[in-house]
User: Which sequence fits this backbone?
């Protein structure tokens, strides 16, 4: 198959490797042929199947992309220009290096895991002894006072979400899925708590009454967030704006929601065992 | 307020309580292990196994300094994978020996299971079918006990062992079970591996026409996964099955596609082999 070499220049080639697939609409059309230092950074040459070049007009952009999973394969994704003459040998593409929602969600997971661990510690403390209940009640009261601030943070997020109407449908779907999992996980956790600490729940009832109104407001806000997510589909723009908003989500979630249970632990860094390594000729 | 609502509020408040206090920083050594292992995995997925090996070695070294048995096991297993892909088979076996030769109970059982499975794969790659079958069986029994997620992978390895042991009927049964298990877990890689084994087994049983649809499905998945090694294997099996079926034109078509991939991937040995086959036609 005849291939045509085009290139782009990036100030940072971290994560880009020789042989990495080049995809157009998610379909492999070539691969990274070579990398070399250039005056502006690193020049990355792409070998693209000539048969597909008519779909890639001059003015198209390339960007570094990863599949939905954080541990998924990375690739160079071509974002074709709307019209124009096709690329020819030696042409240069603009290159955009942006954080994907997957990476942002990974950031969220990483930041949320410590909160989850602390939650587990608190729960185990509760299970171990009842003498700490008074201390816990004081902590609960103090934290309940913070709920209005959290509510305000969530409202700000909602305003931002409503304004944002960018594409990224696939990534937004993943975000929505995480939110749904959060809801399911919270329900599961609630059921478990209900079975594990019924006595404690009774002792805390007076405190719970005092924070009931704040929690109700919070639940309504959560419902609004779900609605906005469904209505606008993509809630988060790419780039630093998204990161800032994600930061707000993290902050609010850490303080209020038992979201940590909803986020899976980051995927294990160990390589997956693949039975293909047993295929004849793999020696 | 209902009991359920109270409990929900309790949980929310507990979480709030967590955030109210400073969060403990993860131990620096464990952070470094995780970072080195993650970089190693990323490099291996991008095909840079040599650089990946250095990262996993570093992760293993740090894990040993803090006697983190789980991390030692995980990184030893990852090292065995990249060593095998680099052709360093003795080193790959040595890496696994860290887990397999250890005193019982030193490593989590999940790691022992993974090490046994990897040992079966290495034995199969070295055409030691008997050893492969024994380790795969141990991994299978452990997997049944633990309810592990590697059932499809183990069944595929057992299917490969049966094919190497000339028991195509057993290989077909195992591969079909592997396909079912892999589809149940939405594991596309192992689904494709199972379909490839189904095709190979059917061809061995004298049904090359029946092998082709399974192999085509495997090819379709592997193309979606964009793994040239597997695409090449699928095309090679399709070429063989088509030739056995008597469709020389289709066989040549698959062979030419395999050659193009070999050249593109600069797979010198594979390309030369395919080129010789083409010249002989």
Assistant:
């Amino acid at each position: 198959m005849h291939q045509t070499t085009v290139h782009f220049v990036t100030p940072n080639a971290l994560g880009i490797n020789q042989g990495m697939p080049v995809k157009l609409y998610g379909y492999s059309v070539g691969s990274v042929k070579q990398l070399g230092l250039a005056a502006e950074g690193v020049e990355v040459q792409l070998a693209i199947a000539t048969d597909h070049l008519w779909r890639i007009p001059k003015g198209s952009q390339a960007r570094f992309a990863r599949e939905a999973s954080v541990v998924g394969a990375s690739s160079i994704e071509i974002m074709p220009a709307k019209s124009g003459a096709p690329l020819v040998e030696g042409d240069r593409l603009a290159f955009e290096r942006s954080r994907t929602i997957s990476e942002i969600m990974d950031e969220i997971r990483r930041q949320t895991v410590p909160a989850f661990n602390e939650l587990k510690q608190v729960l185990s403390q509760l299970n171990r002894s009842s003498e700490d209940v008074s201390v816990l009640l004081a902590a609960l009261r103090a934290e309940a006072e913070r709920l209005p601030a959290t509510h305000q943070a969530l409202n700000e997020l909602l305003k931002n979400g409503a304004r944002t109407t960018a594409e990224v449908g696939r990534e937004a779907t993943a975000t929505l899925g995480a939110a749904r999992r959060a809801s399911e996980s919270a329900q599961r956790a609630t059921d478990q708590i209900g079975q594990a600490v019924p006595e404690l729940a009774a002792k805390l009832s007076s405190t719970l009454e005092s924070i009931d109104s704040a929690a109700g407001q919070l639940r309504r806000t959560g419902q609004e967030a779900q609605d906005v997510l469904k209505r606008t589909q993509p809630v988060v723009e790419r780039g630093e704006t998204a990161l800032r908003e994600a930061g707000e989500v993290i902050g609010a979630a850490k303080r209020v929601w038992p979201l940590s249970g909803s986020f899976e632990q980051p995927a294990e860094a160990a390589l997956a065992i693949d039975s293909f390594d047993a295929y004849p000729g793999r020696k | 307020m209902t009991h359920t609502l109270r409990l929900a509020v309790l949980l929310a408040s507990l979480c709030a309580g967590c955030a109210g206090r400073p969060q403990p920083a993860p131990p620096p050594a464990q952070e470094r292990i995780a970072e080195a292992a993650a970089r190693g995995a990323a490099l291996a997925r991008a095909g840079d196994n040599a650089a990946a090996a250095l990262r996993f070695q570093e992760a293993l070294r740090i894990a040993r300094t803090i006697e983190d048995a789980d991390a030692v096991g995980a990184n030893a297993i990852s090292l065995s994978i990249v060593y095998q892909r680099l052709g360093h088979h003795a080193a790959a076996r040595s890496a696994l020996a860290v887990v397999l030769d250890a005193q019982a109970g030193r490593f989590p059982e999940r790691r022992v299971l993974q090490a046994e499975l990897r040992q079966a794969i290495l034995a199969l790659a070295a055409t030691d079918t008997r050893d492969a079958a024994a380790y795969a069986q141990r991994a299978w029994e452990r997997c049944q006990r633990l309810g592990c997620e590697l059932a499809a992978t183990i069944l595929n390895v057992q299917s490969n062992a049966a094919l190497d042991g000339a028991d195509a009927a057993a290989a077909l049964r195992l591969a079909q079970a592997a396909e079912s298990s892999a589809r149940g877990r939405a594991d596309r890689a192992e689904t494709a591996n199972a379909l490839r084994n189904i095709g190979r087994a059917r061809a061995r049983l004298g049904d090359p026409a029946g092998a082709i649809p399974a192999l085509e499905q495997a090819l379709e998945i592997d193309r979606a996964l964009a793994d040239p090694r597997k695409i090449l294997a699928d095309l090679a099996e399709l070429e063989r099955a088509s030739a056995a079926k008597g469709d020389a034109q289709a066989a040549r078509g698959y062979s030419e596609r395999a050659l193009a991939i070999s050249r593109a991937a600069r797979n010198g040995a594979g390309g030369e082999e395919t080129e010789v086959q083409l010249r002989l036609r």
Remarks:
- DSSP finds 14 helices and no strands in chain B.
- Chain B touches chain A through 79 residues (CB under 8 Å).
